[in-house]
Amino acid sequence: MGQAVDVIEDRYALGADVEPAGIDDRLRRIRDELAVVEAMVRHENEIRIAPVDIGQVVRAARQGIGQHFDASLFADPAFDMLLFVFLEEEAGRQVETSACYRASGVPRTTAVRWINMLVSLGMFESAPHPTDRRLALLSLSEPTREGMRQWLTALRPLVERMTLRDRPTGVG
Question: CB–CB of 122/141 below 8 Å?
């Protein structure tokens, strides 16, 4: 943060003794300073609000809808499983098929159909469980992982607007 402030100060230090020629110079200076501040805020938010953080909020919202409505009305097993596996992998955990069934919010047989479809589409990769032959381990394919990361990153501006809107005035 100090480095960006130095940039603002250094940019105009040479002409600090000279009064700007007019309103255009003043406006240009303000615009330049605001651009630096905007870049600092964007960089701070990018560091603070990671795709996995946004994914956790989306997952919590999806799970919470069942407290207010019939959750079966909002069942989207493919999305719920993709998000679950993404978050688990980001946390460094392996995902067993049984955990994926539970995360889907649908009956086991329905979840199995969706998992098989996601595997056949190349979105999930399946590997044998090292100790339990009844189970398999699921992971996202690299293109799917990158797609999830890009989608969640694309949600960042919405999250930023909410967090900036909710900040009290004068708090940085």
Answer: yes
* Sign, CA torsion 145/79/116/94: positive
Residues 81 and 99: their CA atoms lie apart, in Å, by 9
Helix (H) or strand (E) holding 114: helix 108-120
- 120: its two tokens: 């056949």
* pTM of the shown model: 0.67
Which residue has tokens 């940019």?
Answer: 11
Q: What is the pLDDT, as a whole number, of residue 126?
A: 95
Interhelix angle for 108-120 vs 77-90, to 10°? 70
Model pLDDT for residues 6-26, shown as the tens digit of each residue: 555 555 555 555 555 678 888
HEC string of 27-95 equals: HHHHHHHHHHHHHHHHHHHHHHCCHHHHHHHHHHHHHHHHHCCCHHHHCCHHHHHHHHHHHHHHCCCCE
